[in-house]
Structures are given as C-alpha cells and as structure tokens.
Amino acid sequence: DELLAAADESGDGQLQVEEFVKWVFAEDQAISGGVKGKFTLKISGCSRPELNGVYVKQPECYYRRPIFHCIENERYLFYHGSRKQWQIYSRTGKYASARL
After folding, report:
1. Is the Cβ–Cβ distance between 77 and 59 less than 8 Å?
2. How many beta carbons lie within 10 A of that of residue 48, not counting itself?
C-alpha cells in the first residue's frame, strides 16, 4: 500500500505505466522521495550479451538519478544528464558500452 501511494502520482488508486517509470527512475522527486527499497532491473536480449543481467539499485546517485549495478558482468546502468540517456558501462561517467 505504501509503495502504491508513493508511486501513484494522480492519486486514483491505480498505478499507470508512466507513473511507475517516473517513480523507478526518480524523474520526479516528489514521487520517489522518502521511498527506500531494493529494486532490480533485468536487461535481456541485448545484441551484446555481456550487457545482459540483473541490475540492482545502489544507494548512491549520478546526475540525481539512481545507479544500478550488475554483479554478474560488473557493469553499471546509470543516467547521463548531459546526454539525457541511460547508459551501461563499467563505471559511471561519460563513456558507455550501450545507451538506452
């Protein structure tokens, strides 16, 4: 119930896809503020299989957005503010193995 209340921006009691994406990727601090948890994203079907894996949300942020780390492939999924894109690379920064 707390999760739904935190992510349900419109307050209609139903979680829309747009609300969920904004909340998960912390695009709206009013929605994501104060909610803590261990969130994972599974990336599969990449043309570069070494980028596939389960990415776990880390406590730190990059460009005020969450960072996700995949232990299996030692890669990070993070948002690059200047490019306005999510990227996968071996560390946060300007370089990327893939951009989403």
Report:
1. no
2. 9
CA–CA distance, 34 with 90 (Å, rounded to integer): 29
pLDDT at 35 over 60: no
pLDDT tens readout for residues 52-97: 999 999 988 888 888 999 999 999 999 988 888 889 999 998 888 8
- Give the start-end residues of each E strand in 1-100: 40-43, 53-62, 65-70, 75-80, 85-89, 98-99
Question: What single string gives the DSSP state of each residue in 70-86?
Answer: ETTTTEEEEEETTTTEE
Q: 75-90: buried (b, 16+ CB within 10 Å) or exposed (e) per residue?
A: bbbbbbeeeeebbbbe
Rg from Cα positions in the chain: 14
